[in-house]
C-alpha cells in the first residue's frame, strides 16, 4: 500500500524551544504566572527540606533501635508524625497549584494558537496548499500538543529544580558522612574524600548514558504515534460527517479498509515503541534495583570494621539513594522528555506552516476603493467592482485564467459559465481574497456589503437560529425577521424549529440548506452577492422564485452567479464565459482560460 507523504519532522534547537515557551511568561498574565511558579518551587523545596530532616531522623531511628532506647524511640515517632503531616500537606498543594498553573498556561496558549490559525485564513490555506507542509492535523496540535507542552514543561522544570536542590542538600550530607576511602596504587597510598559522592556520580552517569543510547528512537516514534492517532480519529470523523453518502454508496467495506490501514499504522508504530520501551525498562529496572544494594555494598567494609554505626550506614544508604535519584533525573524523565520533544517539534512545524501561510506572497491585490473626495457614502457604494489584468494559477503554478479585465457596475447581474474545472469558483475565491496564486488587481467599492454563497453552505451545529444568523452571533436578528425570511424562502415549516439544536447539515436536504443560505442573504442584505451554484440543488420553480425575489427584496443589489443551468440566463444581463483562446476543449493548463464578456437579452431583472 502506498503511504501518504508524511510531514517532515522539524528539528528544534534551544532558542526555538524557548520561543515556544517564553510568550506566556512575559504576557499580561506574567505576574500571576510567576507568583504561582514561585509558590510551587517553594513547596517543592519544602519537600526537599523535609526529606533532609527525614534522612537525619533515619539515622537517629537506627541508632535508637540499636541501643534499645524506648523513650527516645517514642519521641522519634512523634517527630515523624508531624514531619509526615507537613509533607502530605505540602505535597498536595504542590500538585494542586501545578495543575492550576498548567490550565492557566494552556488556556492562554490555546487562545493565541486559535487566533494564529484563524488569522489571515491560515486554516484555509494550510488545507489548500498541501505541498511542503511541516505539520498535519492542526486540530491535534492545538488540542493535544499544547496540553502536553504545558504539562510536560512544568513537570520537567519542577522535577529538575527539585532534583538539583535535593542533589545540593544531600551531596554535602553524603560527603560528610561517607568519609574518605584509602587505597594504594603504584607503591603510593591514595585517598578519595567523600568517595560515596563519586560513586553516585559515576553510577548515575553510566545509567544516563545507557538510557539515552537505548531510548533515543522514542522521540521520532512518539512523533509518529500522535500523527497516526490523529489520522485514525480524523478518518472516523469523516465517516460520521459523510454517513449518508457512505451508506448510499454502500461504502462500508472501503471505509473499513481505510480505517483498518490507519489502525495498522498505529499498531506497527506502537510495536516499535513497545520494543524500545522494553529495552529501556530492562535498563531502568536493573539500574533502579542495583541502586538499592550498591551503597550498602560500597560502605559495608567501613561498617564491619566498626568505623561507622548502623544508623550512619542507613543514613549513607538513604542519602546515596537521594543523590543517585537526583542525578538520575534524566533517566527517570526520559519518556516524558521524549514525548515533550515530539510535541515541541510538532508545534514548531505548525507555527512554521501558519507563518508561511500568513505571509504567502501574492501578486493579487484586492483592495477596497477609497471614496473619491467629497463623495457621499451612497455615491461611494455606486462605484463598481473592478478587475484588472487578473491571471489566476493553481498552487503549483499552472495557469488557470489569463489576463482578465472587467468592471461590474452597481445593480449589474452577471452569469459566469464555462466547462467544469475551468476556474469559475477560483475567480470568485480571488475576489473574496482567499486565493493567493496569481497576479492582478481587484478593487471593491467602498462601504459595499459583499456576500459569497457557495454550493454547500456551512451550517454550524447549534440552534437553527444560530445557524441562520451565522457568521453574525445568535440574536443578531429577531425571530420575527428570521421567520419572515423563512417564509420568503419557502421554508415556513422551520419557523417552529428556531430554538432546536441539531447538526443541520445532516438533517436538512441539500435544497433546503441552499434555501437557508438565501435566508441569510435576505437577513444580511448585501450590496454585492456572489452565488456559486448556490441554487443547484433546488427545483427549477423555487430557484426562479428566489432569483425573482432578489432584486425585489434587495433593490440595486449586484448579483454574480456561477451556474451551469441555462434557465438562469433570463435573470442576468451579462455573461462571462470561460473558453480556450485556441478553441481546444480539453483542459490544458499551459495556456489557461480566457473569459469572453457578452451581453444577454434583458429578462425580468
Ligand atoms: N487547492 C487546490 N489545489 C490544487 N488544485 C486546485 C485547488 N483548488 C482548485 N483546484 C483546481 O483548480 C481548477 C479550477 O477549480 P474551480 O473550482 O475553480 O473550477 P470550476 O470552474 O468552478 O468547476 P465546476 O464547474 O466543476 O464547479 C480545477 O481543476 C481544480 O481541480
UniProtKB/TrEMBL annotation:
Transmembrane segments: 35-52, 76-96, 154-175, 195-215
InterPro entries: AAA+_ATPase (IPR003593), ABC1_TM_dom (IPR011527), ABC1_TM_sf (IPR036640), ABC_transporter-like_ATP-bd (IPR003439), ABC_transporter-like_CS (IPR017871), ABC_transporter_sub-D (IPR050835), P-loop_NTPase (IPR027417)
Cellular compartment(s): Cell membrane
All residue ranges annotated as the ABC transmembrane type-1 domain in the record: 38-339
Domain ABC transporter: 385-605
KW Transport (keyword) present: yes
Swiss-Prot/TrEMBL keywords: ATP-binding, Cell membrane, Membrane, Nucleotide-binding, Transmembrane, Transmembrane helix, Transport
Pfam entry (one): ABC_tran
GO MF term set: ATP binding
SMART domains: AAA
Annotated SUPFAM superfamilies: ABC transporter transmembrane region (SSF90123), P-loop containing nucleoside triphosphate hydrolases (SSF52540)
Its membrane topology: Multi-pass membrane protein
Top-level taxon of the source organism: Bacteria
UniProt name for this protein: ABC transporter ATP-binding protein/permease
UniProt source species: Herbaspirillum lusitanum
Amino acid at each position: 500500500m502506498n503511504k501518504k507523504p508524511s510531514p517532515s519532522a522539524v528539528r528544534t534547537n534551544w532558542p526555538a524551544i524557548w520561543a515556544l515557551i517564553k510568550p506566556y511568561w512575559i504576557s499580561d498574565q506574567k505576574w500571576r504566572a510567576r507568583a504561582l511558579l514561585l509558590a510551587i518551587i517553594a513547596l517543592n523545596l519544602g519537600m526537599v527540606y523535609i526529606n533532609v530532616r527525614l534522612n537525619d531522623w533515619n539515622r537517629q531511628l537506627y541508632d535508637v533501635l540499636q541501643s534499645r532506647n524506648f523513650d527516645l524511640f517514642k519521641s522519634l515517632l512523634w517527630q515523624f508524625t508531624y514531619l509526615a503531616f507537613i509533607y502530605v500537606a505540602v505535597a498536595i498543594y504542590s500538585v494542586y497549584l501545578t495543575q492550576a498553573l498548567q490550565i492557566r498556561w494552556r488556556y492562554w496558549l490555546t487562545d493565541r494558537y486559535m487566533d494564529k490559525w484563524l488569522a489571515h485564513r491560515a486554516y484555509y490555506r494550510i488545507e489548500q496548499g498541501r505541498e511542503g507542509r511541516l505539520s498535519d492535523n492542526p486540530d491535534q496540535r492545538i488540542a493535544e500538543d499544547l496540553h502536553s507542552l504545558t504539562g510536560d514543561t512544568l513537570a520537567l522544570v519542577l522535577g529538575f529544580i527539585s532534583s538539583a536542590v535535593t542533589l545540593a542538600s544531600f551531596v554535602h550530607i553524603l560527603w560528610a558522612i561517607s568519609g574518605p576511602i584509602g587505597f594504594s596504587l603504584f607503591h603510593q597510598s591514595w585517598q578519595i574524600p567523600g568517595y560515596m559522592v563519586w560513586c553516585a556520580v559515576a553510577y548515575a552517569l553510566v545509567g544516563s548514558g545507557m538510557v539515552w543510547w537505548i531510548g533515543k528512537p522514542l522521540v521520532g516514534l512518539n512523533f509518529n504515534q500522535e500523527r497516526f492517532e490523529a489520522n485514525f480519529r480524523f478518518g472516523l470523523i469523516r465517516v460520521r460527517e459523510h454517513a449518508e453518502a457512505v451508506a448510499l454508496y454502500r461504502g462500508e467495506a472501503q471505509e473499513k479498509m481505510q480505517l483498518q490501514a490507519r489502525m495498522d499504522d498505529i499498531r506497527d508504530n506502537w510495536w516499535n515503541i513497545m520494543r524500545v520501551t522494553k529495552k529501556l525498562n530492562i535498563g531502568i529496572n536493573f539500574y533502579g534495583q542495583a541502586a538499592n544494594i550498591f551503597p550498602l555494598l560500597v560502605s559495608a567494609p567501613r561498617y564491619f570494621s566498626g568505623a561507622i554505626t548502623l544508623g550512619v550506614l542507613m543514613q549513607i544508604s538513604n542519602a546515596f539513594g537521594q543523590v543517585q535519584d537526583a542525578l538520575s533525573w534524566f533517566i527517570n524523565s526520559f519518556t516524558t522528555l521524549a514525548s515533550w520533544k515530539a510535541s515541541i517539534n510538532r508545534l514548531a512545524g505548525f507555527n512554521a506552516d501558519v507563518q508561511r501561510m500568513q505571509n504567502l506572497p501574492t501578486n493579487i491585490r484586492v483592495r477596497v476603493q477609497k471614496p473619491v473626495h467629497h463623495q457621499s457614502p451612497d455615491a461611494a457604494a455606486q462605484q463598481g467592482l473592478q478587475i484588472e489584468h487578473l491571471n489566476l494559477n493553481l498552487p503549483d503554478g499552472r495557469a488557470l485564467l489569463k489576463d482578465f479585465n472587467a468592471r461590474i457596475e452597481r445593480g449589474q447581474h452577471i452569469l459566469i459559465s464555462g466547462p467544469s474545472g475551468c476556474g469559475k469558483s477560483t475567480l470568485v475565491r480571488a475576489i473574496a481574497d482567499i486565493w493567493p496564486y496569481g497576479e492582478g488587481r481587484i478593487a471593491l467599492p467602498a462601504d459595499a456589503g459583499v456576500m459569497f454563497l457557495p454550493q454547500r453552505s456551512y451550517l454550524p451545529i447549534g440552534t437553527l437560529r444560530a445557524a441562520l444568523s451565522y457568521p453574525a452571533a445568535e440574536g443578531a436578528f429577531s425571530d420575527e425577521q428570521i421567520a419572515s425570511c423563512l417564509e420568503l424562502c419557502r421554508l415556513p415549516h422551520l419557523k417552529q424549529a428556531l430554538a432546536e439544536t441539531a447538526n443541520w447539515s445532516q438533517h436538512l436536504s441539500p435544497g433546503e440548506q441552499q434555501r437557508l443560505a438565501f435566508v441569510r442573504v435576505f437577513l444580511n442584505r448585501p450590496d454585492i452577492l456572489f452565488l456559486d451554484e448556490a441554487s443547484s440543488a433546488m427545483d427549477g420553480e423555487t430557484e426562479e422564485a428566489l432569483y425573482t425575489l432578489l432584486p425585489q427584496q434587495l433593490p440595486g443589489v449586484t448579483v454574480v452567479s456561477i451556474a451551469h443551468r441555462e434557465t438562469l440566463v433570463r435573470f442576468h444581463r451579462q455573461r462571462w464565459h470561460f473558453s480556450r483562446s485556441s478553441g481546444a476543449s480539453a483542459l490544458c493548463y499551459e495556456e489557461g482560460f480566457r473569459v469572453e464578456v457578452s451581453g444577454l437579452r434583458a429578462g425580468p431583472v
